[in-house]
Amino acid sequence: MASSPLRRSVESTAPAAPRIPTSVLEGLFIRGLKVSGRLVEELKALGYDIKQPEVDYPVQVFLGAVLLARQEVFGELTDEEAYRRVGRTLVDGFASTLVGRVVAVALPMIGPARALERIPRYLALMGRTDIDVTQTPVGERGRRIVFTDRYNRPDLMAGGLERMMELANAQPRITVEERNAEGYRLLVRW
Question: One of this protein's Pfam families, by short name (predicted)?
Fold first, then answer.
């Protein structure tokens, strides 16, 4: 049965799911977690072969790999703490990749406020141009940040931002204020 012209039009205008550059997966699994053995085979079964990486991966492969890291490496922690740890590990590992080093070297020089302003740019390096980011100042050393992100858990982002802020010479406190199907709101203080 052929689809109607209206349906084809809607399908063609729907945004494509994001693709995650291999440097992000390399940062988390090779440089951050330094995976080996069974975990390498489980990642391969998900579609990420660390020995023969592709240029990029569908966001669903990334999400499955993040869930695997949460379960296998941080299984004893609550979901919130485990995903924060995955986010921190991802940023640490990504900062040691070729692409990530360019960002990481600048963070101490630009400081936490400017680092937060650059979140959309950093997300684009990680393949996430689909995320809208809105920031509202909360005093001199705080920001309320709204992310329209249907894929990542807010705790993953919170952990990544915590580590990014530390690399920018800040001591952050990040609270997940709101979670919903279309995104989340974080309160970032330093």
Answer: DUF2378
